[in-house]
Write a structure and sequence with these properties.
Immunoglobulin-like; 9-stranded antiparallel beta sheet
Length: about 600
């Protein structure tokens, strides 16, 4: 059976020397010819023995079959030196080694000095994570000693390859991707006995329209729970909207912590869990707290077979969330009108937020919901407000409101009229979860829509209305029409026109016109004015006039409008006074007298 360890191979060489020594002693003590047969190593077993932070024991047992009829006396001294990449990490001696006849067991227990592990580790890293393990034996008997050739075997690790990845890993909040790490890389620097530099790079994409900002990032590296490195970035880390940034973190392992790691590695069947954790930093009651960022972090498990010469195995495993920050979710964001008895109309918005974090979480007192709520109609800003509300653990209903002044209503009305009674609506709710250590925008999409009105539609331009005085027809009014003039902040003109026809042989005069325009009983126009228009006998004449709406009354109207679910009744009345042969008559122009239902959809239910 072949030896399965370096120490087993050494024992083969030592046994040969023992036989030589035994032959010599036998010749000296016995007469006649002594025939010496070669003993054989039947089996070897090697395992780690006692392990503490100072020393690591290697226990080896070798079963030897001595076919000779004589025993080898215990006069042999053995010594051996253990090297790892030419760093002498341990040694051992065994005195009085001998062999009985038949089978016997030789036990060896060299030790590794754990204080030499940092020096070896530096050579391991600088040698591309390659190590040659060597054991150099020496043997001596009375009047004779010699050194034997070193026995060597190599092993390698590949720890950082697990961090070289192009597999996207995302940070999500409320089901939305806030950041995606599209590429991560890691590389060793030049290691010394004191430290091992490691450079980590992460290419991070921000797909949203908001800036993601971390007040400070930190990192830690643990190997079997032994923290071998930690540190922080300098200052704020900012990833702008729809941009890609590379986060660079230069760290260094404290090689002084490696003896403790080595002991844990050996004691754990040569298995190490290496955690590289990135986290955000925050101050809580004067203490610095860590909040893990799992989308950047990696956990690697690797095993070695230093004594047996087997292959090293490395695999990436999932990093548990543990007590990491769990992002609150926003269930809904709804808005409604509020009309107070006094003051401006308000939009009240309610956000339902569920916070899964406990009250004793490090960031609990700093967690808040921040929103910028805006409503634009035809690029006129009706609402634009930013509100921040603290978030308690569990279910939260957060309300806030913003006022719409009469002037803002006027601005929208002017844009609506001048845009052919079409309003383009954009409602934005830019929600950000502010954790105290980072601002994470949720990038809720804007709500867009359109609504139209047609307030002048009821006017029938094809109708003809009779003009009568004292029961006698004198003429008619036809081709009545109205259209919007150019609205301004103070007023909105409606340009009216009509064709007046005189059927009589004498002329008549239009001496007065008057009109009233109301929206939900709020009077926007109420005026009568003198007119001096003469319509000659048997002729027609176009009469033009301008109805002027007082836009300063729109604020009062708006309150009634939103109280009625954004519905209004438009009421228009128009008359003319005709004088013929000394008689006058007020005539209501039916085509310009009407009621019309007007609906809008400012907050988001499209209607026409």
């Amino acid at each position: 059976m072949r030896p399965n360890s370096l120490l087993g191979k050494i024992l083969v060489a030592i046994v040969s020397l023992l036989v030589v020594a035994a032959g010599g002693i036998g010749v000296a003590l016995a007469s006649g010819v002594v025939t010496v047969q070669q003993p054989t190593v039947e089996s070897t077993s090697t395992e780690w023995g006692t392990v503490n932070e100072d020393r690591t024991e290697i226990r080896t047992e070798v079963v030897v079959d001595n076919p000779n009829s004589f025993r080898v006396p215990g006069v042999v001294d053995m010594g051996y030196e253990i090297g790892m990449n030419d760093v002498v990490v341990g040694e051992g001696t065994k005195s009085g080694v001998g062999l009985g006849t038949g089978r016997s067991t030789v036990s060896l227990s060299p030790t590794i000095d754990n204080d030499k592990i940092p020096a070896w580790w530096a050579t391991h890293v600088n040698n591309g994570e390659q190590t040659t393990l060597s054991v150099t034996p020496s043997v001596g008997v009375p009047f004779y000693s010699t050194s034997l050739p070193a026995q060597e075997q190599s092993f390698s690790t590949d720890l950082l390859s697990a961090f070289d990845s192009s597999e996207p890993r995302s940070l999500t909040v409320d089901g939305r991707t806030i950041l995606t790490a599209t590429k991560t890389e890691a590389s060793w620097g030049e290691a010394t006995e004191e430290k091992t530099p490691i450079a980590f790079d992460a290419t991070v994409e921000n797909p949203g329209s908001g800036t993601v900002e971390f007040s400070k990032l930190g990192y830690s590296i643990t190997m079997n729970d032994v923290e071998v490195a930690n540190g922080t970035t300098d200052g704020t880390v900012t990833i702008g909207p729809e941009s890609t940034e590379t986060i660079e973190i230069d760290s260094a392992m404290d090689n002084g912590k490696l003896p403790a790691w080595w002991a844990s590695h050996v004691d754990n069947d040569e298995t190490t869990t290496m955690d590289v954790q990135f986290y955000a930093l925050m101050q809580d009651d004067g203490e610095t707290e860590r909040v893990p960022l799992s989308f950047l972090s990696k956990r690697v498990v690797f095993t070695t077979d230093v004594l047996g010469g087997g292959e090293t195995q490395t695999k990436v495993v999932e990093t548990p969330n543990g007590s990491a920050f769990q992002a609150p979710t926003v269930g809904s964001v709804t808005s409604e009108w509020v009309v107070p008895d006094q003051g401006d109309t308000r939009v009240r918005t309610t956000a339902v937020v569920d916070n899964p974090n406990d009250a004793d979480a490090a960031f609990a007192d700093d967690l808040s919901f921040r929103t910028n709520y805006s409503v634009q109609m035809n690029d006129v800003s009706l609402v634009d407000t930013t509100v921040s509300k603290a978030i308690a653990p569990g279910h939260n209903e957060l309300s806030f409101s913003a006022a719409i002044t009469g002037r803002e209503v006027q601005s929208w009305w002017v844009s609506h009229v001048n845009n052919d009674e079409v309003s383009q609506r954009v409602v934005e709710r830019e929600v950000t979860i502010d954790t105290g250590f980072a601002r994470l925008p949720l990038n809720r999409p804007a709500e867009r829509g359109q609504f139209t009105t047609d307030m002048l539609a009821p006017i029938d331009e094809s109708s003809t209305q009779e003009i009568s005085l004292a029961g006698r027809r004198v003429g008619s009014v036809s081709d009545m029409g109205a259209e919007w003039g150019e609205a301004t902040m103070p007023e909105t003109p409606i340009e009216t026109s009509a064709t007046v026809t005189n059927d009589r042989g004498d002329s008549f005069d239009i001496t007065e016109v008057g009109y009233t325009v109301k929206m939900n009983d709020v009077v926007l126009a109420d005026e009568s004015k003198d007119k001096s228009v003469t319509v000659s006998a048997h002729s027609s004449k176009t009469v033009e006039d301008t109805i002027v709406l007082d836009n300063t009354k729109l604020g009062d109207w708006w309150k009634t409008h939103v109280q009625n679910d954004e519905r209004s009744t438009l009421s228009v009345s128009y008359y003319v006074v005709v004088e013929y042969r000394g008689q006058t008559q007020r005539i209501e122009l039916d085509s310009l007298n009407y009621e019309k239902q007007v609906e809008t959809d400012v907050l988001g239910q499209d209607s026409n």
